[in-house]
Design brief:
The complex is a heterotrimer. By secondary structure, chain A is of the alpha+beta class. Chain A is built from 11 helices and 14 strands. The chains are: A alpha+beta, B alpha+beta, C alpha+beta. The complex binds flavin-adenine dinucleotide and FE2/S2 (inorganic) cluster (2 copies). The site of one FE2/S2 (inorganic) cluster has 10 residues of chain B, from loops.
Chain lengths: ~260, ~160, ~650
């Protein structure tokens, strides 16, 4: 049988974790497993710690609590740049519940917010204070996350795009995010991340490399488009086949980079 | 293990014992006897179980029941005030916005959350607001029309 | 919603003083729906309600070596574990209630499983969670068997046997054929005359009905030794009949409450929840709920089955289609359910709303190791229509014709003889095409724009039942033995020829004489009685006997003496002008074992069960209280109309 444990602070909750336990965020994924009798865990650990839902801004540095929901991101002026990614998650009811922390843990094809955060080079702060890059966190995905540290992108250099069959709500065929930093009019140190193109959200180094030093126009991005799925083996699922994902990725990458409208 | 939870249900105080791990949908239906929210999937994808928690729509099948302690829950069961139907209910009746009726309570709650926040929504705002609610009888157009009509009626009143 | 009533069309065929159509009427159930008070099956509260979950097959096809539920039985909250041996009548087929098909599907599998998700045990516990945990604690030892998931692979001699009741992987039609035949005219000769042959293959995947309310039932003891069952069924009386049969109790003990259904779309006719819930209720003496979760609804709920259709058309240069042959495959999944019937329904629909003087089809109800399929909105018709209309476009391209004009040219008109030997009435395809063209600004030639469903119908050859070439290929078991191709007239078997016929009186539902007995079998099966007013006899009428002396027409002769489209042949045998009462009142045609293979020898003999029918005289068009032979004793023998 299943037990629920509630702790006043996130630190105590983290201490109570073991492999039979799951930390409860908004519950949109965990409660699904509970309802379907998943027996891989028999404890739910939760906290009433309000600090987990805080958004703090210090200049360009932002700290977003792991318990912040997609709806709160959309409502926050400080996080306006993330609002298109937050809006991409589920419908309104899901967004009132779905947390940032849970999104980092969400299995394929979920994790749209994580894709955006990956392109923004977010740093994950664990409950015990340890800090690591989101990329490293996604590689091991364990421990309880306290917050995410994000540097605010400038102007229009951050872009996010989700491709789904059902609109406005639909699961990702893929999602893509780009942080298009420039130096002297040319792209430099660009970060590109995809969701639903690999078991977890990933950075796409082949594309990042192909964008180094080019200008942001059709000719400039041509090499990046042909490298769009280099090194990736996109999964087959009921939403799309891996083949399809590979075929359409360059088109969506072009639209993302050039800011073209798809609809 | 059962634990006690108190919250406000449609304006009245409610106290129930919940099984550990129980979701709010089960607690409302079995514990409180409010059968208006429906089970369609238990995984957040159909919206038939949509209720408002502190005025915001939630899929009650994914809400761990004890997390609503001290909060306010609204369901379609409490939408009418006495014999007077809510404008949304009237508009759903007049606009034939229910076929089998199974998605209807969830649709009404999603729509109420929208109108409470935004009394004169555009069509695409309505679409967005009910995007988490499936109607397999595919009556979306009449549903959207009815919500817009209800907004108009409320504005006029 | 804005409906437009075209008062100019068919004005003389109907009155326009509608007092209901076009006016809103308040629905009876709408108040319940908007207040959340409509009572769906799960909206009934019971004290001490028990919950049921099933142990399900993880394999497409496997023998069950052993089942060990001892650990599950000891778990907290588990009240009862039920297996196939606990079900009084474990094997059933839905249409056994109307005496169609053999019992082939266990409520709970005992010896083998034939699709992923097939239930093996039903566990009844005090909570859903306890039942789920007990399901995980059951140990079933399976020996995996080869499986087949493709309809045509299932017809191959080497295919594994999916359903032991039908060891050829096809439903048996009329105890004779492995497919449902339609023969009308002579397609082969017409193909040889045609300017173009246009072939095409069309495939439709299975579709899940996906109602928002999942299927389920709650069975609770009533005080008077009855059981109340709240159910999501779309077919309340099927569910009562099936439950009574499988539990082997009188239907008088079953109090079924339904009708408020959270979307059905056909998927709620299978009647599997009610017997299991009622059985568990009897076994525990407590209310029991058996409700599918969404995953079960998607995996185990019978979908609209996949279908594959091949169409071959013989087309003249001017666009007239003179012959059309179909080969259709319905994927029934592992058990029959309603697929046997869908095949017949679709056959009755061929060749679509077009007048084609030569039509042949072989349609197969095929067993594969997929989830058994069932009804869904127009099933039997939907995929066939999809195939036909796609094919019409292909034909239009082949002859270089406008696709709408091609349809108008070939559209059936009032008075045309359809392939199932009924005169077409109230046709409106031409007018529909014209309206579509008009609305979309599509320009039609003068002829097409002037055409009317009311003129030109039944002219010449198109008004009669053509002389029809028959064959006996595809007898049960033959395909598996010999690898016979599934197409009609694929080369084997004995040909016969049925002479041309006429429609005698189209005002009676069964006014047209069938050319063969097996064409009429459904009439009696469905409980209809003819309008003749002549008492039934058990004797074969004289003219039927004469017809049994029909010669076997060799292929060459058929082609030369009965070119398709050439009408006005031999004068009409009496059998076609006046329908003998006995053919109308005969119960299900049961062709005898075939000896010579001539069409004559295929004439069915009257089975002994007909005695029951004979005692009743068919005097009215639709009899009230007709007792049908072989109908389940668990449902009342009368059919109200
Ligand atoms: C109908 C529906 C539609 C959806 N659509 C989308 C979509 O479009 N895009 C998308 O990305 N996702 C989607 N999701 C998935 C999910 O809602 C989101 O990914 C959400 O962000 C998960 O967060 P949560 O707080 O609800 O997670 P929970 O269910 O609470 O937890 C999920 C996992 O994360 C872990 N976790 C939670 N918080 C933390 C933490 N602080 N530290 C460490 N681990 C933690 C949990 O232990 C658990 O393993 C959808 C889900 C549903 C039901
Ligand atoms: S039952 Fe809650 S969303 Fe479907
Ligand atoms: S009315 Fe039936 S699901 Fe919406």
């Amino acid at each position: 049988m299943l037990e629920v444990e509630t702790y006043p602070t996130v630190g105590e909750a983290a201490n109570a974790m073991d492999d039979q336990a799951r930390f409860l965020g908004g519950g949109t994924l965990i409660m699904n497993r509970v309802n379907y009798g998943d027996r891989r865990f028999n404890r739910i650990v939760r906290t009433t710690d309000a600090s987990l839902s805080e958004i703090r801004a210090e200049g360009d540095r932002l700290e977003v609590g792991a318990g912040v929901t997609m709806a709160s991101i959309m409502a926050s002026r400080d996080l306006e740049f993330l609002s298109s990614a937050a809006r991409a998650v589920g419908g309104p009811a899901i967004r009132n519940m779905a947390s940032v922390g849970g999104n980092l843990m969400a299995p394929h094809p979920y994790g749209d917010m994580a894709v955006a955060l990956l392109a923004l080079d977010a740093v994950v702060r664990m409950v015990r204070g340890e800090e690591l890059s989101l990329e490293d966190f996604l590689a091991r995905r364990n421990g309880v996350v306290r917050s995410l540290l994000i540097r605010r992108p400038q102007g229009d250099e951050f872009r996010f795009r989700k491709v789904s069959r059902v609109k406005p709500k639909g699961v990702s065929v893929m999602s893509m995010a780009a942080h298009l930093t420039r130096s002297a009019g040319r792209l430099s140190g660009v970060r590109i991340a995809y969701g639903a193109m690999a078991p977890t959200p990933v950075r796409v180094r082949a594309v990042e490399n192909a964008l180094e030093g080019v200008s942001l126009d059709h000719a400039g991005i041509a090499a990046a488009l042909s490298a769009a799925t280099e090194g990736l083996d996109p999964p087959d699922d009921p939403i799309a086949s891996g083949w399809y994902r590979r075929e359409v990725a360059p088109v969506h990458l072009r639209r993302l980079l050039l800011g073209e409208d798809a609809r | 293990m059962k634990s006690p939870v108190t919250f406000t249900l449609n304006g009245s105080e409610s106290a129930v014992f919940v099984d550990s791990g129980a979701n709010l949908l089960d607690v409302l239906r079995r514990g409180c006897g409010d059968l208006s929210p429906k089970y369609g999937c238990g995984q957040g994808s159909c919206g038939a179980c949509t209720v408002l928690i502190d005025g915001e729509p939630h899929v009650s099948c994914l809400v761990l029941a004890e997390t609503v302690a001290g909060r306010s829950v609204e369901t379609t069961g409490g939408l009418a005030s006495g014999p007077d139907l809510h404008p949304l209910q009237r508009a759903f009746i007049d606009g034939f916005a229910a076929q089998c009726g199974y998605c209807t309570p969830g649709m009404l709650m999603a729509a109420k959350a929208l109108l409470d926040r935004n009394p004169s929504p555009t069509r695409s705002e309505v679409e967005e607001a009910i995007s988490g609610n499936l109607c397999r009888c595919t009556g979306y157009e009449p549903i959207i029309d009815a919500i817009l009509e209800a907004a108009k009626q409320r504005g006029a009143a | 919603m804005n409906a437009e009533y075209r008062k100019d069309l068919f004005a003389d065929e109907r009155s326009d003083d509608f007092d209901v159509v076009g006016k809103p009427v308040l629905r009876q159930d709408i108040m319940g729906h908007v207040t959340g008070r409509s009572k769906f099956y799960d909206d009934h509260a019971f004290d001490g309600l028990l919950h049921m979950r099933c142990v399900r097959s993880p394999h497409h096809h496997a023998r069950i070596r052993s089942v060990d539920s001892s650990a599950a039985e000891r778990q907290d909250g588990v009240v009862r574990v039920l297996g196939g041996r606990d079900v009084p009548v474990n094997t059933n087929t839905l249409l056994s209630l109307i005496n169609f098909g053999r019992d082939d599907e266990p409520l709970l599998a005992t010896d083998k499983v034939s699709y992923v998700g097939q239930p093996v045990l039903a566990i009844v516990a005090t909570s859903v969670r306890a039942a789920q945990e007990a399901v995980d604690a059951v140990n079933v030892d399976y020996e995996e068997l080869p499986h087949v998931l493709d309809v045509e692979k299932a017809l191959k001699p080497e295919a594994p046997i999916v359903n032991d009741e039908y060891p050829n992987n096809t439903f048996d039609y009329f105890d004779t054929y492995d497919h449902q035949k339609l023969r009308f005219g002579d397609v082969e000769t017409a193909f040889s005359r045609a300017d173009h042959i246009v072939g095409g293959e069309y495939q439709m995947s299975p579709i899940e009905q996906a109602p928002i309310e999942t299927c389920g039932a709650i069975a609770a003891p009533e005080t008077n030794d009855r059981i109340t069952v709240h159910t999501s069924t779309q077919a309340l009386f099927f569910s009562v009949g099936v439950t009574a049969k499988q539990l082997d109790i009188s239907s008088a003990r079953l109090h079924f409450i339904g009708g408020t259904v959270g979307g059905g779309f056909g998927g709620k006719v299978d009647s599997h929840h009610e017997p299991l819930a009622a059985l568990a209720c009897l076994a525990t003496g407590r209310p029991v709920k058996y409700m599918w979760d969404r995953a079960e609804e998607m995996q185990v709920g019978g979908p609209r089955g996949g279908e594959r259709w091949r169409i071959k058309d013989g087309v003249m240069r001017d666009g007239r289609i003179i012959a059309r042959a179909f080969t259709g495959f319905f994927d029934a999944g592992a058990y029959t359910r309603l697929s046997s019937y869908a095949v017949q329904k679709s056959t009755g629909h061929l060749p679509g709303p077009y007048s084609i003087p030569n039509v042949a089809s072989n349609v197969y109800c095929v067993f594969t190791n997929r989830t058994p399929s069932t009804a869904m909105r127009g099933f039997g018709i939907t995929a066939a229509d999809f195939a036909i209309e796609r094919h019409m476009d292909k034909v239009a391209r082949a002859v270089g014709m406008d696709p709408i004009e091609l349809r108008i040219l070939n559209a059936y008109r009032d008075g045309d003889m359809k392939a199932h030997r009924r005169e077409a009435k109230n046709c409106a395809l031409i007018e529909s095409c014209q309206a579509v063209a008009q609305k979309t600004g599509w320009s039609l030639s003068g002829d097409a724009a002037r055409a009317s469903s009311k003129t030109g119908g039944g002219e010449g050859a198109l008004g009669v039942i053509p002389a029809t070439v028959t064959d006996d290929e595809g007898r049960i078991g033959e395909r598996r033995r010999s690898g016979l191709a599934p197409e009609p007239f694929s080369g084997k078997g004995t040909r016969g020829l049925l002479p041309e016929g006429h429609s005698s009186n189209n005002s009676s539902a069964f006014g047209n004489a069938p050319q063969r007995k097996d064409m009429e079998a459904e009439v009696e099966r469905l409980g209809f009685k003819g309008a003749t007013g002549v008492p039934a006899t058990l004797q074969e009428p004289a003219d039927e006997a004469t017809s049994s002396a029909r010669p076997t027409v060799p292929r060459e002769t058929a082609q030369t003496t009965h070119p398709a489209g050439a009408r006005g042949g031999p004068s009409l045998p009496a059998a076609y002008t006046q329908r003998p009462a006995s053919t109308i009142n005969q119960p299900i045609a049961q062709p005898p074992a075939q000896a010579s293979g001539t069409p004559a020898a295929q004439q069915p003999v009257t089975p002994p069960a007909a005695a029951e029918t004979e005692s009743e005289t068919a005097t009215t068009h639709f009899q009230r209280g007709v007792r049908r032979p072989g109908v389940s004793r668990f449902i009342s023998g009368s059919r109200r109309r």
